[in-house]
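SAMPLE LOG
Freezer: B-3
Tube label: C17
Construct: single chain, 196 aa
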Amino acid sequence: MDQEFDQPVCKKKKLWETVAERVTAKLRAEGYHDVAVKAFECDLKWRNMLATYRKNAERVKRLGVQSVHWEFFKTMHDVLGRSYEEIEAQRKAKLNSTKVGKAIASKRYTPILPTPSLTATALPPARPPQDVLQLYLELQERKLKMWAQQKALEERKIDAINNLANAISSLAQGNTVQMFKEPTVSEPPSSLPSQH
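STRUCTURE (predicted):
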């Protein structure tokens, strides 16, 4: 779907919905009938994989292919390698044609690489990138649960307000009826306080 995604004006959401439908159909064909893939999951996964590919492509340029241990790198590079390299070459060509680019190209410099510190080795290992999607999905699930709890609380508030309104209404109707009823037994005037 490269051509569709490369269109300057297109609905990316619709395209990702198509991708999600295709992935779901493929999973069902492979026997995973209880799995339904959503468009935002495909989009997020693609962005994460693309970022990981780009980091590894830069690593290959600096340290060589043997430095990359990501299992999907070769597959991603087969698909994106040439186009990514073409884009980088175009970017560098544009930069070299500017005054700043020419100034940078004429300078000779040695990049300063960070030296490993003792604190960096003492830190616990970071989560692998493939866990990011799982964390995101767990966060979304927690948000949905919180929303459901908030909704239930609001519904209880509405029920309480309705019950209060009904009680007030019935009290008001009871008082109105009392006002229009004629007294059945009248009290003698002697029971009233005297106003002397």
